[in-house]
Amino acid sequence: MLKWIKRLVLGFFSITLLVVIGSYWFLQTTLPTVTGELHFKGLLAPVTISREPSGVVHIQAENETDLFYAQGVAHAQDRLWQMEFQRRIGAGRLAEILGNKAIDQDKFLRTWGFYRAAEQAYLALDSEGKAVINAYVAGINGYLESDPTLPIEFYLLGVKPAKWTPADVLVWSKMMSFNLAGNRRTELRRYALLAKGLTEERIAELMPLYANQVQPADAAPIHPTTRDYQLIEALFKADKFTPVTSEVSNNWVISGQHTASGQPLLANDPHLAISNPSLWYLVHLSAPHYNAIGASLPGLPCVVIGHNQDIAWGVTNVEADVEDIYVLDETADGKGYLYQNVVTPYTIRTETIKVKGEADQSITIKESLYGVVISDLVADVPHTKPLALRWTGHDADDTTFSTYYWINKARDWTDFNAAMRFYIAPSQNFIYADKVGNIGHIVPGRLPIRKTGHSGLYPVAGNGDWDWQGFIPFEALPRTYNPPAGYIATANNDISPPNYPYHISLEWGGEPYRFQRINQLITATDKHDLASVRAIQQDQHSLLYDDFRPYLQNLPVTSPTAQAALKRLLVWRGDMSRHSSEATLFMAWYMGFARLPNAETGESWYFYPRYLLNALKSGDSACATQKRSCLEIAAQVFETVVEQWKTDIPQWGFIHQAEFNHAILTHTPLAPLFDRRVDFGGERFTINTGWVDPDTFKTTHLPSYRQLIDFSQLDNSEYIHTVGQSGNVMSAHFDDLLPLWQKGEYLSMKTTGYVEAEKLVLKP
């Protein structure tokens, strides 16, 4: 009996070992071929794909067609599953591989029509833009036709990748553009508060405009009913079906007037939601008359942020108000609505959603002259009037992609501006520097002109009375060239020139703390170099803390433990380092106090610090309702926080962790193989940002890519993104950049003289 048990155990472990070895061997076969030679149909001449020890890719081609073909190959080699997943999200085709749990998300994405918009955008491109995309698509399909062993996700989910199309390339940029146009969220939030019975005056207190801008009077505010509140809340939840990015970033450029070398320095760090793999892919593209390096997006050709041999550029979101919600007066039969007192029929389209393991489902989508009827996203929720959304990114003539192709080739400010004429959405702050010492800033994009009486803060009647009056002319868009100050910085702040005749936004990116801190640090140093701009980019000093500190000084805490903790907090200098326990104490108190208006809003109000500051300064009805002063409530929150940890307050990074989770496998037993986690510092308003989940304190958004360009020697420039270059968990480059990124280190941004660890030649 004992022998039999021993044999059984031995057999079990032997089989387990064989399975482990077999699985490991199979996973190894999913790695791409990155050395030697491969033959591809469609190439005109040989192309070299070199990889540095970090996995950074350099592509050298004899012509642009082959260059973008090879970029398609390289992206597919390292990020094929990510690209597949992204195009399925954009097309609303997740239920095909994930089953009925993805139906609601597919319905949401099909209703918005991102894929149709991508198809239209391709048709609108100039011939050069189409040629670039066609070559890139041919490269991806050429790689698929080479019958590679696919990444493990394809086998686990039983997915066979179909051929790529031009719309597959553009659909993810449509998704990103939609997420970066966030005004619909604040418009819905105000509308929801109205539906709950709050007055416009109270909403203005709760949601103060940027830098105390005066709130204009809306000539015809629409007052929803209590019944509509359920609809608005449901729309909030539905909006979460889009992969939430972030609407903020930093960039700045310093002229030689303020640098040690006498040449410009340019910095950029887009802040986006955490993803694994990284949203970005570092690449150098070289061909005759084309030499660009920087961050690309897997699934899209060209370099999105970076430099060529003549110029450099970086981007931040403008936070322009390019969305409006219209309340429709629908006919009794639900087939149309009143527009200029005439019954106007909806445009109806039907979408069929394939569902893994189940029958197909069909949905009917209504479109108005303004756009999609978004209330149909939650058609089962009762409401009084349907809502439609007007958004510039849905315009059929969106030629934004061509901008990126042409700035990759731009030689000077004139070329750079010419490229911006193609730009539609999302509106971005493009900063610029060139090798002869010029610096600049331009705000391209289609920015609507509204009638007087339409602030864009609330939904308005969709009857034709409040239609947009065109767009700000290209020549009138804000721009700056070689300003007297010798530097330019943007951080989602108000960039309207003095006495600007057009309205861009009333909200911008919330409080201007990051912009103010960047300006403080730039002006604090006479002559900047790469080290000083690196220090600015890594800065985590909290101006939020500085603003609240005078009120913290006066908190009437009573317990000895809380008094000791408060004394410790007041000595602290406001550095939101991951090693700081005081950072934990401050942020836990702030998030607790941000629940002050919960009875009215139903959610934490941490994203409106000026409301909280005003409450501490002048009192607030939310405090009066509790029959206590706001300082007393703030003190009670502090006592509660201290009681939780007493004297053992954890370091900020311990609870403010950044979790880089696999989009699908994070909820499976395979999660430990794919997911990564690091301690991180910062908060929403620090330069080196780390957005804070108000309930868990985990990091939600962070600097997804960092770039520092030095025109004294371009090959001394630096860049880094999160996680790694490869999306394959078996690759050495799956997560090798993450420790560097966490510590604030960078890779050299070399176009020559780099170490070539692997070399692959593609031949016709």
Topology:
Blueprint: H1 2-29, E1 36-39, E2 47-51, E3 57-60, H2 64-91, H3 95-98, H4 103-112, H5 114-124, H6 127-145, H7 152-157, H8 166-180, H9 183-195, H10 200-206, H11 226-239, E4 248-254, E5 265-273, E6 281-287, E7 290-296, E8 305-307, E9 311-317, E10 323-327, E11 336-339, E12 342-345, E13 347-353, E14 361-367, E15 387-391, H12 400-409, H13 413-420, E16 428-434, E17 439-442, E18 460-461, E19 479-481, E20 487-490, H14 513-523, H15 530-537, H16 543-552, H17 560-571, H18 581-593, H19 598-601, H20 609-618, H21 621-625, H22 630-645, H23 652-655, E21 657-660, H24 671-674, E22 676-679, E23 701-703, E24 705-710, E25 718-721, H25 738-743, E26 747-748, E27 758-763
Task: Provide keyphrases for this structure.
764 residues, alpha+beta, Glutamine Phosphoribosylpyrophosphate, subunit 1, domain 1, Penicillin amidase (Acylase) alpha subunit, N-terminal domain, eleven-stranded mixed β-sheet, seven-stranded antiparallel β-sheet, 36% helix, Penicillin_amidase_dom1, Penicillin acylase family protein, hydrolase, metal-binding
Short overview:
By secondary structure, the protein is α+β, with helices and mostly antiparallel strands. Helices cover 36% and strands 18% of the residues.
Q: In terms of per-residue confidence, which ranges show pLDDT below 50 for 5 or more consecutive residues?
A: 5-22
Tell me the distance between the termini: 66 Å
Strand segment tally: 27
Which strand order do you get reading across the main beta sheet?
1-27-2-3-6-7-8-9-16-17-19
Describe the global form. Answer: globular
Largest sheet: 11 strands, mixed
Helix content: 25-40%
CATH superfamily of the domain at 248-320 and 399-455 and 470-537: Aminohydrolase, N-terminal nucleophile (Ntn) domain
Average pLDDT for all residues: 94
Using the coordinates shown, work out and report the CATH topology of the domain at 248-320 and 399-455 and 470-537: Glutamine Phosphoribosylpyrophosphate, subunit 1, domain 1
Strand content: 15-25%
